[in-house]
């Protein structure tokens, strides 16, 4: 549901998008419980329902002007919970192919971008999600679905295993690259603010 700073902000937090985000949080927790317990099919269905609500609440918020400050924080937070949490629990399943360092990279990237966003938007800047970040999320979800299908179809076909492997590595690569891209964008914003402050100080001292 993440929207640009220019979007109209609703005055009430009690709306459909925030309700959907709350439901997605519950479903995310359910996914993290179902996978370790071996309920892979139910876990996959729950995961698909959870990630689909992300698109629905974003569409609803923009269409009906129900973007809220809470939603701008809560929505990406829940997104990170479901992606980071799912990668972490998949590490505990050897057949998944998800290595611990992959989960660490996913979590580290999210922590980095969240910190940068808080720093810049706290200073009044705009650090909305880019299309690269959105595609990163799509690829991560596709990787999780493919990996889950290999667990469900165990033993999985060679084609499915290769597809899961390719999507997993592609998602990790895009995760790292998008983190790098966000870091560069944040550096430019902070440098621009520093230059403005320096120029203002020079004028004041003149």
The residue fraction in helices comes out at over 70%
The CATH superfamily name is: CDP-alcohol phosphotransferase transmembrane (TM) domain
What gap, in angstroms, lies between the N and C termini? 47 Å
Question: Low-confidence stretches at least 5 residues in length (pLDDT < 50)?
Answer: 1-6
SS class: mainly alpha
| Largest sheet: number of strands, sense, barrel closure | none
- Within the CATH hierarchy, at the fold level, what is the topology? Four Helix Bundle (Hemerythrin (Met), subunit A)
Multimerization state: single chain
Please describe what this structure looks like:
The chain has one domain (16-192): Up-down Bundle (Four Helix Bundle (Hemerythrin (Met), subunit A)). Helices cover 77% and strands 0% of the residues. The protein has six helices and no strands. It has helices spanning 16-34, 40-63, 69-91, 100-122, 131-152, 158-205. α2 runs antiparallel to α5 (131-152), α3 runs antiparallel to α4 and α4 (100-122) runs parallel beside α6. It starts with 15 loop residues before the first helix and ends with a helix.
In a nutshell, what does this entry contain?
The chain has 206 residues and is mostly helical.
């Amino acid at each position: 549901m993440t929207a640009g700073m220019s979007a109209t902000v609703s005055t009430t937090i009690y709306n459909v998008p925030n309700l959907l985000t709350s439901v997605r949080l519950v479903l995310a927790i359910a996914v993290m419980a179902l996978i370790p317990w071996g309920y892979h099919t139910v876990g996959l269905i729950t995961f698909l329902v959870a990630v689909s609500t992300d698109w629905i609440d974003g569409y609803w918020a923009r269409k009906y002007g129900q973007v809220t400050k809470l939603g701008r924080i809560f929505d990406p937070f829940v997104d990170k919970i479901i992606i980071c949490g799912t990668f972490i629990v998949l590490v505990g399943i050897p057949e998944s192919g998800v290595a611990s360092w992959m989960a660490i990279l996913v979590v580290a990237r999210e922590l980095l971008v969240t910190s940068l966003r808080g720093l810049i938007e706290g200073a009044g800047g705009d650090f909305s999600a880019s299309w690269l970040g959105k595609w990163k999320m799509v690829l991560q979800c596709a990787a999780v679905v493919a990996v889950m299908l290999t667990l469900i179809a165990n033993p999985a076909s060679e084609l499915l295993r290769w597809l899961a492997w390719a999507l997993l590595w592609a998602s990790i690569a895009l995760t790292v690259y998008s983190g790098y891209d966000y870091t560069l964008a944040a550096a430019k914003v902070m440098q621009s603010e520093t230059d403005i402050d320096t120029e203002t100080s020079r004028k004041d001292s003149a």
